[in-house]
Amino acid sequence: MPNTSIILGKISGLFGVRGEVRVFDFSRHRGAILEYDPWLLWQERSWQQIKVVGGRQHQDTLVVQLEGFEDREASRELIGAEVAIRPGQLESLNDGEYYWHQLEGLAVVNEAGDNFGIVERLIETGANDVLVVRGQRERLIPYTINTITNVDLLNKKIRVDWELDY
């Protein structure tokens, strides 16, 4: 995936006979992916920009009509395609707030300077988000106001109040 796209979902199947597709939305709030237009779809080893004509929630997925895909057979080629947007389509955040994609790949060190590794991904637990840090071993570090002491995007580093033996 190029750095110029943020994956927000995946086309999981077809819906009806008019070319609509089922989309699994990775957003924290189901349906939020519908706020973005155009989408980027990963097809034939490259990103293709596609206009969203319309969409709605249907059970546990979304049903979406994409421009240029007006029948079921044409839409069949989209099954499995990842859905992404460009970073510029995201709304600006307040100081101290970050999107997950901004934290992935950052080095994690504690107050003593111990290196824990790199943020591989984040997971949502309900209580708080958790950094999955891959180094000599995998560590799960809660992303809380008490644990994260500094995020430095410029130097690609997160400082944490966390000990090696936790």
Contiguous low-pLDDT stretches (5 residues minimum) are: none
Beta-strand percentage?
over 45%
Please give the domain count.
2
Q: Output the CATH class name of the largest domain.
A: Mainly Beta
Predict the CATH topology of the largest domain: Elongation Factor Tu (Ef-tu), domain 3
What is the overall silhouette? elongated
Give a brief description:
The chain has two helices and 13 strands. It has helices spanning 72-75, 100-103, and strands spanning 6-15, 20-25, 39-43, 46-50, 52-58, 61-66, 82-85, 107-110, 115-124, 129-134, 138-143, 148-152, 157-160.
Task: Spell out the key features of this protein.
13 strands; elongated; 2 domains; 166 residues; Elongation Factor Tu (Ef-tu), domain 3; seven-stranded antiparallel beta sheet; six-stranded mixed beta sheet; single chain; SH3 type barrels; mainly beta; 5% helix
